[in-house]
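Hey, resending since the last one bounced:
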Amino acid sequence: MQCKYFRKRVKKKQYYYYCVKQKKIIYHSNCNNCKYKEYKIYKPIKKRTYKQSKKEKTRYSIIYTNLNKCAECGSIYNIERNEVFEGAYRGRSIKYGMIAPFCHDCHNRFHNDYEMNLRYKVRFQQEFLKNHTRDEFINIFKQDYIYIQKVHKND
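The structure tokens again:
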């Protein structure tokens, strides 16, 4: 932990350390022996709100009935329920059942492999379009992934 008066500053692209209490430039080792040393008090970060944790407990998938088996490789170990449309669309993915179960390795691959990611987004969009219109999907998720896949294949 650091002293709450200890600061790192920059002057002419040179870094130096400064004590706000003593109002002078100091070395890190001098701060350890300082008589004014006080530690910062950190508040714990709230992990999830009640509303968000309730949504996550009731997650379902419009494609997969068994959320305890990896959708990609079929493994039953280290299963993570993943929202297919991530980021700002995570809540909408949960609301509309766009959840795919992946083992830890496939989950990492899903986030790092563009083609795999696009394949699942297209699959869920096709399932969504059985009960809704294309315009509804675009209004909710802001993109048409079937069109993106066609363009990607033609390149």
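Helices lie at 28-32, 50-57, 90-96, 104-112, 114-128, 134-141, 145-154.

Sorry for the duplicate.
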